[in-house]
């Protein structure tokens, strides 16, 4: 039985042919690449992340965008501000006027009248009390009738009721005058008038109508991220978060946080117990105390869009590819993982 080499030797032209250098180089490049990829996905670590989108908000509700409303009904008399104007606490925003221009004059006149009634009622009460004292002394000495003494006491009670009624009327007038003094609407704190929604002198407003939109400045900011319910159950307060702010140049590698540029650090503050109307769960993120501070205004404003990655367990690239292909959830963070020890799991 002849060997393969003896048969192939009959084909001299075939044996004289050699593989081109380019093909041999390509073969070794493919083989080296396969070995490199196998080693890469096996030994290179990958940080799993729970991704979400959200926006920058103010932590304190008083620091959020709020409406400036009319405290009393009336009409707009004069505006003291314009859109985008910065105001200080107590600075006038708009002057309202009552629909009845003579209302304040009538209230002041009515107050003077009630004040006079109170003075008369107090004087009458003092006289009635003197009559009671005198009738009591006469009754005790047997010089006066008991009926006169009792009538004097009834007069004192009637005078006290009259005085109390006048005092109540005075309080009502003072309340009305105080409400009319609220016709000057002022800024509740330092901030910016974002948008004026009122009109001119022909515009009538009711109590509670929105006159302008006001945004406080120097608010303590947090980020609210909306994360899928499949991953949110694995997130706990204190977990590190990487944030990419809208308009801030950044390069993000979610699996290798240390390689990313223009990304800022935060940590989970709280997780909502119930889902939001969009079906996702809200996660509040605050600045990391040991990391660089977030960009300030005007670079990152309230309401700016944010992308976030909550850093989870560290796995191999091969495991992460397998998880993604099978659509499996994230790995739960173990007690001996880096983020459980020092609050970060960046490689």
Account of the protein in words:
The chain is of the alpha+beta class and 347 residues long. The chain folds into three domains: 45-61 and 219-339, Elongation Factor Tu (Ef-tu), domain 3, CATH 2.40.30.170; 65-98 and 183-216, Beta Barrel (OB fold (Dihydrolipoamide Acetyltransferase, E2P)), CATH 2.40.50.100; 103-181, Helix Hairpins. It has helices spanning 4-8, 12-16, 21-43, 103-141, 146-181, 229-232, 317-326, 338-342; strands spanning 45-58, 66-69, 74-79, 86-87, 92-97, 184-186, 191-196, 204-205, 210-216, 221-227, 240-245, 264-271, 281-287, 305-316. Strands 1-10-13-12-11-14 form a six-stranded antiparallel beta barrel. A four-stranded antiparallel beta sheet has the order 2-9-7-4, with no helix packed on it. The protein has a four-stranded antiparallel beta sheet with strand order 6-5-3-8, with no helix packed on it. The chain crosses the membrane at residues 28-47.
Number of domains: 3
Which regions contain 5 or more consecutive residues with pLDDT less than 50? 336-347
The CATH H-level superfamily of the largest domain is Efflux pump adaptor protein, beta barrel domain
Q: How many H/I helical runs?
A: 8
CATH fold call of the largest domain: Elongation Factor Tu (Ef-tu), domain 3
> How many beta-strand elements?
14
CATH architecture of the largest domain: Beta Barrel
Helix content: 25-40%
Coiled coil: 149-176
Pfam families: HH_MFP_RND
Organism: Alterisphingorhabdus coralli
Protein name: HlyD family efflux transporter periplasmic adaptor subunit
